[in-house]
Structures are given as structure tokens and as C-alpha cells.
Design brief:
Largest sheet: 16 strands, antiparallel
Number of helices: 12
Number of strands: 32
Structural class: alpha+beta
Strand order of the largest sheet: 17-18-19-20-21-22-23-24-25-26-27-28-29-30-31-32
Oligomer: single chain
Shape: elongated
Strand content: 35-45%
CATH architecture of the largest domain: Beta Barrel
Distance between the termini: 71 Å
Length: 766
């Protein structure tokens, strides 16, 4: 290529010397009277003239001619360029630009790409029909393709670019690739390291590994360079602040399939933190600042710990208190051969206030529903902690798939907050109908509006009907009564069940009213709820087996029973997400008192405690644990309603407490004894699959049981199970889930060892 460029230049100089020698000898400049173009086939003559800078009327010198040639070469369109003097008159000179164009690309083919897809190769080449085929363009395409193969680990790939003439102005291109095998890193050794072994240093390299039987070891130049920095970061975080990579050498095995790397390091001296001093702190005393550092005098020097101390710990302390413009500058002062004193210079500035809060992205939910959940208000001193809590509270509404708060600086005294939300479907609806000879017409209609008209209110309606079963329930909840954090709601239900699927006839009617209030003490996660419930239940038409067994005095009970009860619930919920929590806990203690001055013909006290914990595990997995315990104490001599006892087993679709791997004792034709005490443990490892809609898989282990009295409770006598499952949150449907559990113990419903059982979950998140 270089020789082809030099030849035209020589032609030009010779032509210029012979044809224009007398002209340039007589005068320093000459006026261009005309410029003609020859030899161009596809390039417009006007483009050539304008690119050269030579046009009629311009006074030019020999330097302008040279500049014109350089500018035409830069177009990368011509293989030869000459600028000739046609003729000269007294007023000036006529010039001719003679060019020879590179050919254009007619088509191209690629051969030999077995490991890379054709599209990947074509994207790297970036060639198209009609493109100018110059040596420079071909070389650029070859280099890009070579880089693509290097990035994929084919360091020895050979690429040839061959052209063949189709016509005077077009060529075909053949790209031939010899990929070879991927080069594997066989060994990485370090030289000059005394403080740490080769294995320890190799462990810091995340993207460059040695070839082993259980893994490959492709070489990636970019990842390798990043790994060298990781090695240095490791040294600097272990006190070797002067460590450096002196050199790195690479060589191939004889068959050029293996790569060997030798890295020479200079460790230098190992330093310790010396005295720590402060300057400029007015808001926080030295004791508070030092407690946030994460290191102290005498500790091994660490660049990472120092960085975190400045930008996360101390910086976060000021940021949380509204001093978002505070500047912390650490000065490292060598005090001894291996001691570094740290002097922090703090410029605190002034606290900033929240000027305005903007809500964005809410297409359905009204602004006030979001604003009332915020823990920060206009006029408040900015607090990052309050902003994070506000984000959590808005998330827990479960109206949005994402909540992103932003801080926008107005001036050095004020900021604006922007809370961006992404609405998601919160309403659920289901409708089904069918017909069978046994049940005749059956069906179900259910509607749940969890954000009614964007006001945050909840309204639900459920109606199920069939030949042997009918139920109706309507409920309404206002979470912010009169714009205060006071919840109010009611529920009305009516249920009728014939003795076909269960061994008795049931008729239940009732209603409840509820009040709730958020607390600020002991912290903002606590709340209290108070519920009054009135229920009339009558069981009759008992099966022969039930009459003989009479579990929990179900037959001899004086039906109907009227339960008039008052329940108080104290709860704390610090979960970070409503659908797939990753951290936090939810605990509650409920006490229900029935009878006495409240009326009815049953008297009891029911205590239920529950605790759910979520802890991040590894690789985005979440560990979930749950504990439940309950006890029912009868008051007086009046009976306890059969359905108020504790029952355990199944998937939780009935009133029974779910226990996977076992039958539901309230969903079979054989009635079981209920317990007055219960206890249950659950452990799950949850694996996230998709964020929107939320989908996760799980493995579980749980154990639970019920006992007739508190004295008979035995934590070592529980029914145990393990299994797998999955959950999906579907718009307009709610939670869909499936579990497959194995029960290890005897199932009292079937009278034998349970074994594997499938369970379907609807509407229950965890």
C-alpha cells in the first residue's frame, strides 16, 4: 500500500517541476482559472474539487497543491492522484485533477467460521455492497474480526482477505478464516511475591483462570487487564500501598494451544494506620466520627477501607443528616517507615432542606396515596434514611412494580425530590362456571380491587355456588380514614355446605368490623388492629362415622353456636418488598376474646403468635423461616365451636393451617380431632426467576402438629415434610403456586405414611 501511495506523489512532483517550473520561478502565487477532473467513475467531480480546495479565482502556491493531494488521499477513495497544469495564460492557470478510483465491492463471502455465528462475523466486518474497497478499509475489517476472535478466546485465529476482479470498477471479496482451537490458560505464576502465595493471588483474578478438568480457561485480554488491577487492589487493601506490577510475560506451548503467564510484582513495604486526626468537624464529635471509620490506629492499611470510610461511612453520616455537600478529604501522611497517619479535613457546609416533592409515573394512583406514605416532607431537613424508608413504604403498597427516588439539587440550601413509580395491575378477577351430573351447575365469581379508583381503598367480592356448596363474602377497607393513618373496614359473609364432600351440613353467617392504627413507637414498623366479629354457625346431618367418633364433641354440641368476639393484634412488618421479600421480618401476636360481656353462647381465649424472617443468602437467593404457635383456652363450661380448634395439613385452602405433604383435615369426608395447641416451623430457600411478573422457585422443609392440651405439647413430636415448589404473581389473577411435598410421618387423615403429595396455592404469597 505504501509503495502505491509514493508513486503518484513522485509523478506529481515531476509533473509540477517540468510543467510549472518557469511559472513558480517567476511568481510566488498563481490564480486558478479552472479545474477539471479526469478518471472518476463513481465519485462526483464537484466532490473531488471541493475536497481538494482548488477552485477558480483562488490564488494558490505550491503548498496548496500539496495540501490538495493530502486532502484527496484522506478520502480513501483513490489509488492514484495527479494534479497537472493544463495551460497557463497571463491571468492564471488551468489545472486538471486526475484520479484512479479504488474498486467497489460487488459481494463478499465468508468461509471457515465454525465457532462463531455468521451474523457475528458480518457485524464485525461491517462490509456492504457498493462500498469502496481500499487496503485501509480491508485492514480495518480484518483487525475488527481478529479482535472478535481474540475476545472469544481464539488467539491464534488467522484471517485472509482476498479480492478478485468482476469488472473495471468492481471486485468480489473472499474472507477465509482459520479459527484454530481456543487457547487455554495452562498456568499463571507470580514472581517477586513474598507475602502471599501464588494460589492466593490467582484467587483474586476473577476472569482469568487456569485450565482444569471441570472448567475451561479462555483468555480474554480485557478481563486479564482488569484482573491485574484486582491483584493490585488486593495488595493495597492488605497494607502494601506501594505494590505494582513490574512486568507480565506470556508464551505458548509447542502446539500453540496453551498459554503460560508469568506476572512479576513488587510488593514494597506493608503499612499500618497511624494516628487519626480531624479538622473542620462541628456537627459530630470525634468519638462519633471514629466509631464510623471501620478501622483504628494500628490496623493494617487498606485503601478500600479508607475509601469506604470517606464515601460511605462518614460521608453517609453527613448525607443522612442533610449535609449533602459535605466534603471529606483524607490526607495520608507517612510518619514512619511503615506507618501512615490519616488526617481528615472536613468541610461540612450547611444542611439542605427539601423544597418540593414531585410524583411521576402514577397513571392510576392519586398523588395523595403516595405522599401520605412518605416519611419526609417539604421543609424537612433532607435525610437519606427517611428517603429510603419512604421508598419502602410506597413499595409495600404493592401498587407499583418499581419505585425510584431521585434527589435533584436546586441550590446549596435546597433540593427537590422526585419519586418515580411504575404502575402495575393490582386488581384481580376470576370467573368460572360448569356443569356436572353430580353437582349440576357450579361456578365462582371473584373480584378484588386493591386500589379502588386510585384511592388506595380495597373492595373484594367472592361468590361461589354449586349443588353442595355456596358462599358469599364482601369486604371493604379504607387504609387512611379521614386522611389519618387509621384503617377501617368491614366484612360480611354467608356460607352453606351440604354433607357431600364433608361429613356434616354447615351454615355460617357473620360479619366483622376492623380498626387499625400505625404506631411510631417502638418504631414506625409497628401497628395495632382491633376486630369485632359476630358469627352464627350450625352443623347438622352428621355422618354415621362422625356420630360414632364425635370428635371435639361436634355431635353433642348445642348447635347453633353464636361467637361474639373481640380480637387485638399487635404486629411489626419491616419487609422490603410485598411479593418477593429479600430481607426483614413480619411478626404478630393476636389475642381473641369471645363471650362474657360480648354475648353469644361460647367463651374462649385464643392466642396466636407468628414470626416470618427473610435473610439474603447467596447468588440472590433468599432464606425464609417461619414459626407459628397458638393456644385456645376455654372459659366457663360452654362449648368451643368445632371450627375454632386448630387443624393442620394441606395447602391452606380451607381453615386449616397449611402443612405440605399431608392431607387437609377439613377438606375430606372424615372429620378429625382438632387441637387446642399448635406449633409449626417452616424453612425455605427461594430462587428468583423473574422480577415482573414476580416468579420464584423454592425448596422447603417444615414440621408442625396440633395437640389436645397445652400440657401435651411436644416439640419433638411433629409431622415433617420436604419438597419443592414455585410461585407466580399474575396480573388480574393474583398468586398462583404449586408445591410437591413429601410427608415423612403418618397422616392421621389417611391413617398411614403420607408420601408425596401435590398442592396448589391460590392467593397466598408465603
Amino acid at each position: 500500500m505504501g509503495g502505491r501511495r509514493i508513486a503518484p506523489a513522485i509523478v506529481f512532483l515531476v509533473s509540477l517541476t517540468l510543467a510549472c517550473g518557469q511559472l513558480w520561478a517567476q511568481r510566488r502565487t498563481v490564480k486558478v482559472l479552472g479545474v477539471s477532473v479526469e478518471g472518476n467513475r463513481t465519485t462526483e467531480a464537484d466532490i473531488i474539487r471541493s475536497s481538494s480546495g482548488l477552485y477558480p479565482g483562488r490564488e494558490i502556491t505550491g503548498d496548496d497543491i500539496q495540501k490538495a493531494v493530502r486532502q484527496l488521499w484522506a478520502m480513501d477513495l483513490f489509488s492514484d492522484i495527479e494534479i497537472l497544469l493544463d495551460r497557463e495564460v497571463s491571468e492564471g492557470a488551468y489545472l486538471t485533477i486526475r484520479v484512479k478510483e479504488y474498486p467497489r465491492l460487488e459481494s463478499y463471502t465468508v468461509e471457515g467460521n465454525k465457532k462463531l455465528k455468521k451474523k457475528e462475523v458480518e457485524d464485525a466486518l461491517d462490509l456492504y455492497r457498493g462500498q469502496v474497497v481500499s487496503p485501509r478499509r480491508l485492514k480495518r475489517a480484518q483487525v475488527k474480526l481478529q479482535k472478535l476472535y481474540r475476545d472469544k478466546g481464539f488467539l491464534l485465529a488467522d484471517i485472509r482477505m482476498d479480492t478478485s476482479r468482476v469488472s473495471d470498477s468492481t471486485v468480489n471479496l473472499k474472507v477465509t478464516i482459520e479459527e484454530g482451537e481456543k487457547v487455554q490458560v495452562k498456568k499463571i505464576e507470580f514472581r517477586g511475591n513474598q507475602a502471599f502465595s501464588d494460589a492466593k493471588l490467582r484467587k483474586q483474578m476473577k476472569g482469568t483462570k487456569e485450565d482444569r478438568w471441570w472448567r475451561g480457561a479462555d483468555f480474554d485480554r480485557k478481563k486479564y487487564e482488569e484482573d491485574l488491577e484486582k491483584v493490585l487492589d488486593f495488595y493495597r487493601n492488605e497494607g502494601f500501598r506501594d505494590a505494582e506490577i513490574v512486568s507480565d510475560t506470556m508464551w505458548y506451548s509447542e502446539d500453540r494451544s496453551g498459554l503460560f503467564i508469568a506476572i512479576t510484582v513488587h510488593e514494597g513495604r506493608r503499612y499500618r494506620f497511624g494516628k487519626i486526626t480531624w479538622e473542620g468537624n462541628r456537627i459530630f464529635p470525634v468519638e462519633v466520627l471514629e466509631s464510623q471509620l471501620g478501622f483504628r490506629e494500628g490496623d493494617t492499611y487498606s485503601a478500600e477501607r479508607l475509601h469506604k470510610a470517606v464515601f460511605e461511612r462518614i460521608g453517609g453520616l453527613y448525607y443522612d443528616s442533610g449535609y449533602i455537600f459535605a466534603n471529606i478529604t483524607p490526607r495520608e501522611i507517612p510518619a514512619d517507615s511503615d506507618v501512615i497517619n490519616i488526617h481528615f479535613i472536613i468541610s461540612e457546609g450547611e444542611p439542605v432542606h427539601v423544597r418540593k416533592i414531585h410524583i411521576a409515573g402514577n397513571t392510576k394512583t392519586k398523588d395523595k396515596v403516595i405522599r401520605r406514605e412518605l416519611r419526609i416532607r417539604p421543609g424537612d431537613v433532607f435525610s437519606r434514611d427517611a428517603l429510603i424508608r419512604s421508598q419502602r413504604e410506597v413499595f409495600m403498597l404493592n401498587y407499583f412494580s418499581n419505585v425510584v427516588p431521585e434527589v435533584k439539587t436546586v441550590d446549596n440550601q435546597n433540593v427537590d425530590l422526585v419519586v418515580k413509580v411504575e404502575e402495575k395491575s393490582t386488581d384481580t378477577a376470576n370467573m368460572s362456571a360448569g356443569y356436572s351430573e353430580r353437582d349440576k351447575i357450579i361456578g365462582m365469581i371473584g373480584v378484588s380491587m386493591n386500589n379502588l379508583f386510585g384511592n388506595g381503598q380495597r373492595l373484594s367480592l367472592d361468590w361461589s355456588f354449586g349443588r353442595y356448596y355456596r358462599s358469599f363474602e364482601i369486604s371493604f377497607t379504607e387504609p387512611w380514614l379521614m386522611d389519618t393513618p387509621t384503617l377501617a373496614g368491614f366484612s360480611i359473609y354467608d356460607l352453606k355446605r351440604d354433607p357431600y364432600y364433608v361429613p356434616y351440613r354447615q351454615r355460617s353467617q357473620g360479619a366483622s368490623v376492623r380498626l387499625g392504627r400505625r404506631f411510631r413507637w417502638p418504631d414506625i414498623y409497628f401497628r395495632g388492629d382491633w376486630i369485632y366479629r359476630i358469627d352464627r354457625t350450625e352443623l347438622s346431618d352428621f355422618s354415621e362415622s362422625i356420630i360414632q367418633l364425635n370428635p371435639n364433641n361436634i355431635v353433642t354440641q348445642e348447635w347453633p353456636l353464636v361467637t361474639s368476639s373481640f380480637t387485638q393484634i399487635l404486629s411489626r412488618n419491616s419487609l422490603d418488598r410485598p411479593e418477593f421479600p429479600t430481607r426483614g421480618s413480619e411478626m404478630s401476636l393476636s389475642v381473641e376474646y369471645a363471650g362474657g360481656p360480648l354475648g353469644g353462647n361460647v367463651d374462649f381465649l385464643k392466642y396466636i403468635f407468628s414470626s416470618d424472617w427473610f435473610v439474603p443468602a447467596f447468588f440472590k437467593l433468599v432464606f425464609y423461616s417461619s414459626f407459628q404457635a397458638g393456644y385456645i383456652q376455654t372459659l366457663g363450661k360452654r362449648g368451643l365451636p368445632y371450627l375454632e380448634y386448630f387443624f393442620m395439613g394441606g395447602d391452606g385452602m380451607s381453615q386449616a393451617i397449611p402443612l405440605r405433604g399431608y392431607e387437609d383435615p377439613l377438606a375430606t369426608y372424615s372429620a378429625q380431632e382438632g387441637g387446642r395447641a399448635m406449633m409449626k416451623y417452616t424453612f425455605e430457600l427461594r430462587v428468583p426467576i423473574a422480577p415482573n411478573p414476580t416468579i420464584f422457585a423454592l425448596v422447603f422443609a417444615e414440621a408442625g402438629n396440633t395437640w389436645p392440651t397445652l400440657a401435651s405439647v411436644d416439640p419433638y413430636n411433629m409431622r415433617r415434610s420436604v419438597g419443592i415448589g414455585a410461585r407466580m404473581f399474575m396480573p388480574m389473577i393474583g398468586v398462583l403456586g404449586f408445591d410437591y411435598g413429601y410427608g415423612f410421618d403418618v397422616d392421621p387423615v389417611i391413617g398411614k405414611k403420607s408420601g408425596w403429595k401435590p398442592h396448589f396455592v391460590f392467593g397466598r404469597a408465603f
